[in-house]
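Most newcomers find our protein records easier to grasp once they have seen one. Nothing more is needed to start thinking about how sequence determines fold. Here is such a record, shown just as it appears in the course material:
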Amino acid sequence: MTLEEKIGQMIQPEMQQLTPEEAGRYKFGSALNGAGVWPNRDKFTSAKQWAEVVDEYWSAVDSSYEGRPFRIPFMWACDAVHGHNNLYGATIFPHNIGLGAARDPDLIESIGRITAKEIAASGMDWTFAPTVAVPTDRRWGRYFEGYGENPEIAYAYAGRMVRGLQNAVGLDQLDQQVMASIKHWVGDGGTLNGIDRGVASCSEIELLNHHAMGYISALRAGAMVVMTSFSSWDHPLNYDHCPDEGVPYNYKMHGSRYLMNDILKEKMDFQGVIITDWDGHAEVSKCTLGDARYVFNAGVDILMVEARQDWMSVYHNTVEDVIRGKITHNRIDDAVRRILRMKFHAHLWDKPRPRERSLVVAKNIAEWKEHREVARDAVRKSLVLLKNDNEILPLARSSRVLLTGSGVDNIQKQTGGWSLSWQSTDVVLNDFPHASTIAMAVKSIVGNQNCLCDPLLDKHANTSDFDVALVVIGEDAYAEMKGDIRPWRTLEYAALKPSYESDMAIIRRLRKDKIAVVTILLSGRPLYVNEEINLSDAFVVAWLPGTESQGITDILFRTSDEKISHDFHGRLPVDWPTKKYSFTATTCLSSGKYVRSADDPMLSGKDSSSAFTYGYGLNYSQSTNSTIHQDIRLDLDDSEPLPPPTEPESQSWQVFGEGATNNLILRVAGNGLWVGGDVSRTRPTDVLLGNLYPINYTGENDGISVLFNGRIASIYVQDCDQLPKDMRGYVEAGAELVFEIKMVSHPKKNVLLACHDGYPSQGAIDITERLLNLPLGVWSSIDVPLLKLAEAGSEFQHINTPFMLYTEGSIAFDLGRVRWLIGTS
């Protein structure tokens, strides 16, 4: 192989930034599609249409080897993390946290086998799954991607999932197998305060015994790919392998030679491939988006890099680094040898081209009813019954049921993130053929005439007309970063969002009306729900069950002849918190030894931080009227409220522009620049998501011209130290957020205005309509009461970003004079 051919194997671009012609020209070894990315931006792309697109790239690369004495097949990778979840019509399984409650390794292997078939049916070869993180802080936004807080579940499951994915069928049907990837190496679930991409400061023994157990079983099962983590390991062993060049190494896992090379490859004898996460190399202090030398030398074999300008830079820079001796030929050969070994294990030389593979030709993926039956069974096995006073469950099919709560008819809350799109806040029921909400599943059992669906409980129905109220509450969909609970917040469900508080009000009203209440919680993590449990006759944790909600009604309702159809099977894969501030998993390492909760499913003692211990779960064969379980009531956490707000220091706070506070800086962030970057006030700032350059508004360089090109993007003003400050006094004083803007082009997608602490995970309001109504080329003023932002969920007791504009579409505008004003009209 030529040097250029080798480097081509080591770079994996994203399909939106790569044409088939370019894939062939550079002889790339693989490509991927990100979550929410489909050919021609069509989310309804079928499996067969996907295979045709993959085939174009495969054919272009294959043709590039004409005249060479060998050919190296091309691979396509995707994020299939709970089924082939980016494909329209695919089977959507419960997220990992629910599967952890099922305690069924055989089920896990079946799910892997089905997922592999559906991936293969779309012409793809490789999935970035399973996630084997063992989360230790419940505030982490990727908590639901772990199987539970106990590493014994990750160990039991990881190998079985790998076997299911990589050995889906016998050797006579090799084109139905896919390669698995275990992620994210290592300790991503152990970051301080549960901050995504944060810092794990644990010992090496904890990193091994708690966070690496899933890798051990997965590697034994034949996993050939490990994806490294965005997080950091702040430990002296995590050394800088090139201390004399550039700035000091920042402990990011993507640059850890100790953990990737010395431990994984040498000590653990891993013979496969290490791949980066999405542009993850750029977060290493010694790299940029276009320069990955440090991570290649640290042990990375394949670089996942999105943007065309970046993969081109990496390609040419890496070739030059090898020529100059900055990267040795031995390191390149080692990486390519591993890639070829992985491709041999994937049987790529034995597979026909993507469009001719057996499952692509055979049938449409949406016809696989038996796959959905397995998903339905997975839902049944994942449900955990925490309370069933007076044996109210199971319900008779003749029951008159009031269906209410924010999650009762909400497919987003059921599926969670990574479901046809990234954050999955934009999906609707029609995006999932054959799917049903919980309300739909209940109606199919009791009939429309015996139930009323009233999610907000605002139809003024007489609750006495019903035998039982089925209240479905739960978290809105989220994925990485956006799902983090901020360090100053609590796990109290009703306090996380105004809509969640409304769920509590519904339960209180129903209890006051003396109607029987069965509450179902849709959640990616354990939350403080003591009062909700106390006010409910029965309480079920359904996690994030996916599209097959009939798995829930299979258990909640009796058969037509009043028998029990299916019993509860699930057991908690976590300790359930009894305090608002019970952030840390109690099944963690303590003094180097693993602390297990008792197997007996009994309530913890009053002094414990757990309301229900790891392994707890009732079923119908247990009497809930026993002395152990009778009338479960949990103590309410009466933690001290926040201190009163302080008075504002002045009538106005200049945030951006002339006279702005010195400790505030202008920044830009988004797709390809998630960590954010400073915006220069003297020269243009060119980034993947657009470009910005300073302009004169009222003074020299006191304004900014912004062009966003359609990628996820935000421009914001942030405190230099990024430490949140209590600014509630401005809200109490009736202040408004005011800024001047000149529209150059109107927004193509919604624009959100926010002020809180960074990536817009809460408290944003939509100002799209106001911007669309502004004339082009004319300076205008926008003013928004801070109270309106507070009502939307922005927490002014913790502000380090007093201004942010966020959009996922193209837009161009000039910005000047941003301030908080008191006493405006």
Summary: The first strand starts at residue 11 and ends at 12.
